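#data-curation
PF: Archiving a pair of folding outputs for the training set. Convention for this channel: one message per protein, sequence first, structure tokens after, nothing in between. First:
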Amino acid sequence: MISLYFPNREFTSKAELFDAIKKDESRIKALKKAEIIFSHERGHLSKSNIKIKDAVNKALTIEDGYIYPVISTTNYLDSHGDVHINGCFKKTVQEQQGKILYCKDHNISVDTIIAWQSDVEMMVAELPFSELGKEYSGNAECLIFKIDKEALVESESIEDIIDNNRPVQNSIRMQYVNFVTCIDDKRPEYKVEKANWDKYYKMIANKADADMSGYFWAVLELKIRDEGSMVVKGSNDATPILMNPSPEEDMIQCTSCGEAMGGQYCASCGMPQKNIAPSKDTQPEAAKALKRKQFFINVTKQN
């Protein structure tokens, strides 16, 4: 058994690993608080962005003309052993509102900015995991950016990603502020850690992952640092871009699941465009929409 926090040691049992964590808890916590986490470095790949079809969700109004990147979520165990707990985003959103960029791949430079600070509105909303492309039951508290499409920095690659619903995720650049160690061990010396486990384990959507490791850190407060990013893969793959489909996209159905295609990837099942075809009665409208888009592209190039 190998742990991320002890890369040069192999443990023969969970109990041995738990003892090492408890013995080194102060050092581990100090290191976690000191470092800036780029969550795209941790793994996973999603199959598609998600688009909410209804204009009004139970906890979030999706307005036409805006994109809503989900930067991070709670109640989900990631590959660093962290579970963000409801309420962990509240303070940082209040303190950092109007100060956070939306970037590419956690790279802060003029060429990698997707939206400037004044155009990024941070919000927190509770959404079902099913709306985030996951099959888990229950809800997640989501840190979300609201950005007017007209405010996006001009970029052909970003336009392609947004217009064609490319399979990207989002990721938070963060620093730990307050978190507790949770360990599933009934030995008397683990009374505090076991109480933490019992308190926060029930909130986790992917409980099988928690059962396998037997420990995690419940993050009660975090600080977003400078930016959130669009990435190809992140530690938390329940981080899509939410937006309303255009009328043209609503007219074209996926031959696999029957839902609106949402670009070159189906908004519901993630199948690529080769498995998606418009019905005969919508082909003229789709062709007109493509012609209009090509016209504006040509005008832009001429200017």
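PF: Second:
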Amino acid sequence: MPGILQKTGNRLVLALGEEAKQVCEGLDPGDVSTFTIEHGNDVDDIILVGERMEGISGNNIHHADSLGSAIEMAESLTKENDIIISCIKCFR
């Protein structure tokens, strides 16, 4: 069965997490860890954001402390026509 994220031939980078512990309905680190195990091979790199995600590791997992630094990291890992998916809960 194919993964939920389909590779397109371009690099695919996923930024996932939470910018602050106080965000309403934060992401459960256990669920994020399970997601990275089950779908980590569907993307080229995963950037996890937030203190609660720091214990999650893997071959293609990176960590950032904020939305801004995650986007900067994602941009440094990609080039034109690559895809960045950002799913970071934060206050705005």
